[in-house]
Amino acid sequence: MLKPPGSLGKLEDLATRYAVVRGAPSAADDPRIALVIFAADHGVVAEGVSAYPREITRAMVSCIARGVAAVSVLARSHGVPVSIVDVGVVGEEVASDEAIAGVTLTTSRVRAGTRNLRFEAAMTTAEVERAMAIGSDQARRARARHGATILALGEVGIGNTTAAAALVCALTGLAPEVVVGRGTGITEEMLATKTQVVADAVRRIPKDAAPLEVLAHVGGLELAAMVGYVVAAAEARCLVVLDGFLAQAAALVATRYCPDVANALVASHRSAERGSALVLEALGLEPLFDLGMRLGEGTGAVLAASLVRDAVRLEREMGTLAMVGPS
Fold first, then answer.
1. Each residue of 244-297: pLDDT tens digit?
2. Is the pLDDT confidence value at 327 over 60?
3. Angle at the Cα of 167 (from 161 to 172), degrees rounded to 5?
4. Considering only CA atoms, which of 258, 223, 257, 260 is closest in space to residue 243?
5. Of 66, 83, 173, 251, which has the fewest CB atoms closer than 10 Å, so is most exposed?
6. Which domains does the chain have, with CATH numbers?
7. CB neighbours of residue 285 within 10 Å
Protein backbone atom coordinates (compact mmCIF):
# COMPACT_ATOMS: atom_id res chain seq x y z
CA MET A 1 0.00 0.00 0.00
CA LEU A 2 1.04 3.63 -0.52
CA LYS A 3 2.27 4.17 3.03
CA PRO A 4 4.97 3.03 5.43
CA PRO A 5 3.98 -0.23 7.19
CA GLY A 6 1.87 0.42 10.27
CA SER A 7 1.57 4.15 9.60
CA LEU A 8 -2.23 4.11 9.86
CA GLY A 9 -2.00 2.62 13.34
CA LYS A 10 -5.26 1.32 14.78
CA LEU A 11 -7.07 1.89 11.50
CA GLU A 12 -5.09 -1.03 10.11
CA ASP A 13 -6.12 -3.14 13.10
CA LEU A 14 -9.78 -2.26 12.48
CA ALA A 15 -9.60 -3.30 8.85
CA THR A 16 -8.02 -6.58 9.90
CA ARG A 17 -10.66 -7.13 12.58
CA TYR A 18 -13.41 -6.54 10.04
CA ALA A 19 -11.86 -9.05 7.63
CA VAL A 20 -11.52 -11.68 10.37
CA VAL A 21 -15.16 -11.29 11.44
CA ARG A 22 -16.39 -11.33 7.85
CA GLY A 23 -14.19 -14.35 7.02
CA ALA A 24 -12.82 -12.75 3.87
CA PRO A 25 -10.29 -10.07 2.85
CA SER A 26 -11.53 -6.52 3.40
CA ALA A 27 -11.52 -5.97 -0.36
CA ALA A 28 -14.21 -8.63 -0.77
CA ASP A 29 -17.14 -6.36 0.09
CA ASP A 30 -17.90 -2.70 0.64
CA PRO A 31 -18.80 -2.18 4.31
CA ARG A 32 -22.27 -0.84 5.03
CA ILE A 33 -23.55 0.36 8.38
CA ALA A 34 -26.97 0.13 10.02
CA LEU A 35 -27.92 1.41 13.46
CA VAL A 36 -30.73 -0.07 15.55
CA ILE A 37 -31.92 1.71 18.69
CA PHE A 38 -34.05 -0.15 21.24
CA ALA A 39 -36.32 1.77 23.61
CA ALA A 40 -38.11 0.75 26.81
CA ASP A 41 -39.09 2.00 30.25
CA HIS A 42 -38.10 0.75 33.70
CA GLY A 43 -40.21 0.23 36.81
CA VAL A 44 -37.23 1.08 39.01
CA VAL A 45 -37.71 4.76 38.12
CA ALA A 46 -40.24 4.76 40.99
CA GLU A 47 -37.26 4.59 43.38
CA GLY A 48 -36.01 8.04 42.40
CA VAL A 49 -32.91 6.91 40.50
CA SER A 50 -33.22 9.29 37.54
CA ALA A 51 -33.18 13.05 37.10
CA TYR A 52 -35.94 12.72 34.48
CA PRO A 53 -39.42 11.14 34.50
CA ARG A 54 -40.14 8.07 32.42
CA GLU A 55 -42.22 10.13 29.96
CA ILE A 56 -38.92 11.31 28.47
CA THR A 57 -38.35 7.86 26.95
CA ARG A 58 -41.35 8.18 24.65
CA ALA A 59 -40.45 11.80 23.88
CA MET A 60 -36.94 10.76 22.83
CA VAL A 61 -38.29 8.03 20.55
CA SER A 62 -40.33 10.73 18.82
CA CYS A 63 -37.34 13.09 18.58
CA ILE A 64 -35.13 10.41 17.04
CA ALA A 65 -37.85 9.51 14.55
CA ARG A 66 -38.29 13.17 13.59
CA GLY A 67 -34.56 13.59 13.06
CA VAL A 68 -33.85 16.15 15.78
CA ALA A 69 -32.03 14.05 18.39
CA ALA A 70 -28.21 13.99 18.60
CA VAL A 71 -28.00 10.49 17.13
CA SER A 72 -30.30 11.54 14.28
CA VAL A 73 -27.95 14.35 13.33
CA LEU A 74 -24.86 12.13 13.47
CA ALA A 75 -26.51 9.29 11.54
CA ARG A 76 -27.67 11.69 8.84
CA SER A 77 -24.19 13.23 8.62
CA HIS A 78 -22.57 9.82 8.15
CA GLY A 79 -25.26 8.36 5.89
CA VAL A 80 -26.28 5.70 8.40
CA PRO A 81 -29.86 4.34 8.27
CA VAL A 82 -31.58 4.25 11.65
CA SER A 83 -34.20 1.88 13.02
CA ILE A 84 -35.93 2.65 16.33
CA VAL A 85 -37.71 -0.22 18.01
CA ASP A 86 -40.15 0.31 20.89
CA VAL A 87 -39.92 -2.91 22.90
CA GLY A 88 -41.43 -1.59 26.12
CA VAL A 89 -42.14 2.14 26.29
CA VAL A 90 -44.94 3.32 28.57
CA GLY A 91 -47.70 5.47 27.08
CA GLU A 92 -49.20 6.07 23.69
CA GLU A 93 -47.30 4.64 20.75
CA VAL A 94 -45.32 7.08 18.61
CA ALA A 95 -46.96 7.11 15.19
CA SER A 96 -44.80 5.59 12.48
CA ASP A 97 -45.61 8.49 10.13
CA GLU A 98 -43.58 10.78 12.42
CA ALA A 99 -40.39 9.18 11.12
CA ILE A 100 -38.42 11.11 8.51
CA ALA A 101 -36.71 9.52 5.51
CA GLY A 102 -33.87 7.26 6.56
CA VAL A 103 -35.52 6.32 9.83
CA THR A 104 -37.69 3.25 10.45
CA LEU A 105 -39.91 3.22 13.55
CA THR A 106 -41.27 -0.11 14.76
CA THR A 107 -43.49 -0.82 17.78
CA SER A 108 -42.97 -4.35 19.15
CA ARG A 109 -43.86 -3.93 22.81
CA VAL A 110 -43.34 -6.96 25.02
CA ARG A 111 -44.95 -5.07 27.88
CA ALA A 112 -45.24 -1.43 29.00
CA GLY A 113 -42.03 -1.14 31.00
CA THR A 114 -40.40 -3.57 33.39
CA ARG A 115 -41.30 -4.30 36.99
CA ASN A 116 -39.40 -2.63 39.83
CA LEU A 117 -36.14 -4.60 39.95
CA ARG A 118 -35.44 -3.53 43.52
CA PHE A 119 -38.17 -5.80 44.84
CA GLU A 120 -38.93 -8.36 42.13
CA ALA A 121 -37.70 -9.73 38.84
CA ALA A 122 -37.85 -7.03 36.19
CA MET A 123 -39.03 -9.54 33.56
CA THR A 124 -40.21 -13.11 33.28
CA THR A 125 -38.15 -15.62 31.33
CA ALA A 126 -40.76 -15.54 28.57
CA GLU A 127 -40.52 -11.73 28.34
CA VAL A 128 -36.73 -11.93 28.08
CA GLU A 129 -37.02 -14.48 25.29
CA ARG A 130 -39.55 -12.35 23.40
CA ALA A 131 -37.38 -9.24 23.67
CA MET A 132 -34.30 -11.17 22.56
CA ALA A 133 -36.21 -12.56 19.58
CA ILE A 134 -37.17 -9.00 18.57
CA GLY A 135 -33.52 -7.98 18.77
CA SER A 136 -32.43 -10.98 16.69
CA ASP A 137 -35.04 -10.18 14.08
CA GLN A 138 -33.87 -6.57 13.87
CA ALA A 139 -30.29 -7.68 13.23
CA ARG A 140 -31.46 -9.91 10.39
CA ARG A 141 -33.64 -7.11 8.98
CA ALA A 142 -30.74 -4.65 9.04
CA ARG A 143 -28.63 -7.17 7.18
CA ALA A 144 -31.32 -7.85 4.58
CA ARG A 145 -32.69 -4.32 4.15
CA HIS A 146 -29.43 -2.39 4.04
CA GLY A 147 -26.86 -5.05 3.20
CA ALA A 148 -25.21 -4.04 6.46
CA THR A 149 -21.97 -5.71 7.50
CA ILE A 150 -21.32 -3.33 10.38
CA LEU A 151 -24.20 -3.39 12.85
CA ALA A 152 -24.25 -0.63 15.45
CA LEU A 153 -26.64 -0.44 18.38
CA GLY A 154 -27.99 2.08 20.83
CA GLU A 155 -30.79 2.52 23.36
CA VAL A 156 -33.22 4.90 24.99
CA GLY A 157 -34.74 4.24 28.40
CA ILE A 158 -35.03 6.42 31.48
CA GLY A 159 -33.72 4.42 34.43
CA ASN A 160 -31.70 2.00 32.35
CA THR A 161 -28.28 2.85 33.82
CA THR A 162 -29.62 1.39 37.09
CA ALA A 163 -30.48 -1.87 35.33
CA ALA A 164 -27.15 -1.93 33.50
CA ALA A 165 -25.20 -1.34 36.70
CA ALA A 166 -27.09 -4.18 38.40
CA LEU A 167 -26.28 -6.51 35.48
CA VAL A 168 -22.58 -5.63 35.63
CA CYS A 169 -22.43 -6.09 39.40
CA ALA A 170 -24.24 -9.45 39.24
CA LEU A 171 -22.11 -10.83 36.40
CA THR A 172 -18.71 -9.59 37.60
CA GLY A 173 -19.05 -9.55 41.38
CA LEU A 174 -18.06 -5.88 41.50
CA ALA A 175 -19.56 -3.77 44.29
CA PRO A 176 -22.33 -1.29 43.42
CA GLU A 177 -20.24 1.49 44.96
CA VAL A 178 -17.68 1.21 42.15
CA VAL A 179 -20.10 0.57 39.28
CA VAL A 180 -23.14 2.82 39.83
CA GLY A 181 -22.84 6.23 38.18
CA ARG A 182 -24.83 9.41 37.87
CA GLY A 183 -26.69 8.46 34.69
CA THR A 184 -28.78 11.46 33.66
CA GLY A 185 -26.92 13.68 36.13
CA ILE A 186 -28.40 12.89 39.53
CA THR A 187 -27.53 14.49 42.87
CA GLU A 188 -25.27 12.97 45.51
CA GLU A 189 -28.32 11.94 47.54
CA MET A 190 -29.94 10.28 44.52
CA LEU A 191 -26.67 8.50 43.75
CA ALA A 192 -26.68 7.01 47.25
CA THR A 193 -30.26 5.84 46.70
CA LYS A 194 -29.41 4.38 43.29
CA THR A 195 -26.43 2.50 44.74
CA GLN A 196 -28.62 1.01 47.47
CA VAL A 197 -31.28 0.05 44.93
CA VAL A 198 -28.69 -1.85 42.88
CA ALA A 199 -27.34 -3.55 46.00
CA ASP A 200 -30.86 -4.65 47.01
CA ALA A 201 -31.58 -5.94 43.49
CA VAL A 202 -28.34 -7.91 43.15
CA ARG A 203 -28.86 -9.46 46.57
CA ARG A 204 -32.05 -11.12 45.31
CA ILE A 205 -30.30 -12.99 42.49
CA PRO A 206 -29.37 -16.64 43.18
CA LYS A 207 -25.60 -17.13 43.19
CA ASP A 208 -25.80 -19.81 40.51
CA ALA A 209 -28.11 -17.87 38.19
CA ALA A 210 -27.42 -18.29 34.47
CA PRO A 211 -26.80 -15.13 32.38
CA LEU A 212 -30.36 -14.94 31.05
CA GLU A 213 -31.74 -15.45 34.56
CA VAL A 214 -29.66 -12.50 35.72
CA LEU A 215 -31.03 -10.51 32.79
CA ALA A 216 -34.59 -11.37 33.81
CA HIS A 217 -33.97 -10.37 37.43
CA VAL A 218 -32.37 -6.96 36.92
CA GLY A 219 -32.27 -6.12 33.20
CA GLY A 220 -34.57 -4.24 30.90
CA LEU A 221 -36.56 -4.98 27.78
CA GLU A 222 -34.28 -2.88 25.59
CA LEU A 223 -31.24 -4.54 27.16
CA ALA A 224 -32.67 -7.99 26.42
CA ALA A 225 -33.39 -6.95 22.83
CA MET A 226 -29.80 -5.72 22.54
CA VAL A 227 -28.52 -9.10 23.73
CA GLY A 228 -30.50 -10.84 20.98
CA TYR A 229 -29.29 -8.31 18.44
CA VAL A 230 -25.62 -8.79 19.35
CA VAL A 231 -25.84 -12.59 19.22
CA ALA A 232 -27.66 -12.63 15.86
CA ALA A 233 -25.30 -10.05 14.35
CA ALA A 234 -22.26 -12.07 15.38
CA GLU A 235 -23.82 -15.25 14.00
CA ALA A 236 -24.29 -13.44 10.66
CA ARG A 237 -20.56 -12.60 10.63
CA CYS A 238 -21.20 -8.88 11.02
CA LEU A 239 -18.95 -6.58 13.02
CA VAL A 240 -20.89 -5.34 16.05
CA VAL A 241 -20.10 -1.77 17.15
CA LEU A 242 -21.17 -1.08 20.72
CA ASP A 243 -22.29 2.28 22.04
CA GLY A 244 -21.64 3.24 25.67
CA PHE A 245 -22.37 1.73 29.08
CA LEU A 246 -25.77 0.27 28.23
CA ALA A 247 -24.63 -1.49 25.06
CA GLN A 248 -21.51 -2.67 26.87
CA ALA A 249 -23.60 -4.18 29.68
CA ALA A 250 -25.82 -5.94 27.15
CA ALA A 251 -22.72 -7.24 25.38
CA LEU A 252 -21.44 -8.60 28.69
CA VAL A 253 -24.63 -10.63 29.05
CA ALA A 254 -24.33 -11.77 25.43
CA THR A 255 -20.74 -12.97 25.89
CA ARG A 256 -21.62 -14.86 29.06
CA TYR A 257 -24.54 -16.47 27.22
CA CYS A 258 -22.64 -17.12 23.97
CA PRO A 259 -18.83 -16.70 24.39
CA ASP A 260 -18.06 -16.69 20.66
CA VAL A 261 -19.87 -13.35 20.36
CA ALA A 262 -16.82 -11.62 21.88
CA ASN A 263 -14.86 -12.01 18.64
CA ALA A 264 -17.30 -9.77 16.73
CA LEU A 265 -17.31 -6.82 19.15
CA VAL A 266 -15.80 -3.37 18.78
CA ALA A 267 -16.16 -0.80 21.57
CA SER A 268 -16.82 2.70 20.29
CA HIS A 269 -15.97 4.75 23.36
CA ARG A 270 -15.29 4.77 27.05
CA SER A 271 -18.40 6.37 28.47
CA ALA A 272 -18.16 8.93 31.25
CA GLU A 273 -20.56 6.70 33.18
CA ARG A 274 -18.56 5.21 36.05
CA GLY A 275 -19.07 1.54 35.22
CA SER A 276 -18.04 1.80 31.57
CA ALA A 277 -14.30 1.30 32.09
CA LEU A 278 -15.02 -1.68 34.34
CA VAL A 279 -17.32 -3.47 31.92
CA LEU A 280 -14.93 -2.81 29.04
CA GLU A 281 -12.20 -4.45 31.10
CA ALA A 282 -14.50 -7.42 31.74
CA LEU A 283 -15.14 -7.67 27.99
CA GLY A 284 -11.43 -7.33 27.17
CA LEU A 285 -12.13 -4.41 24.81
CA GLU A 286 -10.13 -1.25 24.19
CA PRO A 287 -12.43 1.62 23.13
CA LEU A 288 -11.63 3.60 20.01
CA PHE A 289 -12.02 6.97 21.72
CA ASP A 290 -12.81 8.73 24.98
CA LEU A 291 -14.59 12.05 24.53
CA GLY A 292 -16.40 12.20 27.87
CA MET A 293 -19.66 11.15 26.19
CA ARG A 294 -22.54 9.64 28.18
CA LEU A 295 -25.64 10.38 26.09
CA GLY A 296 -26.39 6.93 24.72
CA GLU A 297 -28.84 6.68 21.79
CA GLY A 298 -26.08 5.13 19.66
CA THR A 299 -24.16 8.42 19.28
CA GLY A 300 -20.77 6.85 19.95
CA ALA A 301 -21.61 3.79 17.87
CA VAL A 302 -22.36 5.90 14.76
CA LEU A 303 -19.03 7.73 15.04
CA ALA A 304 -17.07 4.51 15.60
CA ALA A 305 -18.85 2.52 12.88
CA SER A 306 -18.03 5.27 10.41
CA LEU A 307 -14.38 5.07 11.48
CA VAL A 308 -14.40 1.32 10.89
CA ARG A 309 -15.96 1.83 7.44
CA ASP A 310 -13.24 4.35 6.57
CA ALA A 311 -10.53 1.96 7.75
CA VAL A 312 -11.84 -0.82 5.52
CA ARG A 313 -12.26 1.48 2.53
CA LEU A 314 -8.67 2.64 2.90
CA GLU A 315 -7.53 -0.93 2.52
CA ARG A 316 -9.94 -1.52 -0.39
CA GLU A 317 -9.17 1.61 -2.38
CA MET A 318 -5.63 2.77 -1.65
CA GLY A 319 -3.00 2.22 -4.30
CA THR A 320 0.18 0.21 -3.88
CA LEU A 321 3.83 1.14 -3.89
CA ALA A 322 4.14 -0.50 -7.32
CA MET A 323 2.25 2.50 -8.71
CA VAL A 324 5.12 4.88 -7.92
CA GLY A 325 7.80 2.78 -9.58
CA PRO A 326 10.95 1.13 -8.19
CA SER A 327 11.90 2.02 -4.64
1. 999 999 999 999 999 999 999 999 999 999 999 999 999 999 999 999 999 999
2. no
3. 125
4. 223
5. 173
6. 35-316 (3.40.50.10210)
7. 18
